[in-house]
Description:
GO molecular function: maleate isomerase activity
Organism: Nesterenkonia jeotgali
Protein name: Maleate isomerase
Structural class: alpha/beta
Distance between the termini: 54 Å
InterPro entries: Iso_Racemase_Enz_sf (IPR053714), MaiA/AMDase (IPR026286)
Order of helices and strands: EHEHHEHHEHEHEHEHEH
Low-confidence stretches: none
Keywords: Isomerase
Radius of gyration: 18 Å
Largest sheet: 4 strands, parallel
Amino acid sequence: MTPEAQGVLPHAPARRALGVVVPFDMELDAELWRWLPNGVDLLVTRTPFFDDVVTVEFAREVAQTRVVTDGVRSVTAGRAEAVLYACASGSFVHGRAGQEDLVRAMAAAGSRDAVTTSGAIVEALEVLGIRHVSIATPYTSALSLLLGSFLNEYGVTMAGHAALGLDQRIWEVPYAQTAELIRQADAPEAEAIVVSCTNLPTYDLIAPLEAELGKPIVTANQATMWAGLRRLGRLSNGERQSLLHVPAHAELPGL
């Protein structure tokens, strides 16, 4: 006789959780979930709305410490074991110092482990042993060049670059256009291609383009979820993505 038949209710399986703070215009929550293994949840909150398009000023606005830490407090009120600030431009716009200040502020606001998207990209490149990259972004040139400067502060040089010049509705960019953007960004000297913006869909492109171009592709959402799950000692879902072959329990770098 089963426990249910005997009137004994089963225990709910223990679940773990990552907190995620995203900009108010984030449209790709469902893509983030695709990297999650069974037994891990996302607790997502958004920054307050303001009327602007995706520019350098937009990135500075969503990078304000108060804006991010308010979100951290809302998700750490629950069971989040680590908190991810899932915004690439908001975490690179003030350079390395700004990114590291954000991580410290998130920790002070209650996150046991704090990760930003740009910090996760740097972490991914470090564990892959990458020092020369091409950069593919949907941004304006001004914002894209700030990403290059940010990576350079961590010893990563930009070998190639391509940008779409968009300042809104980035989530609507079709896979075909993103794939062509990545191909345009590639350069012979690039050891990997970094694809920025957490609002740019990339999940299904990573494996086939890695096979086509013969090098790792590190995307904003992929790196963010990978780095967060590393803090839980869990592996990300995602077949044939180079970054996801890194052992979940590998030593975390000091960024």
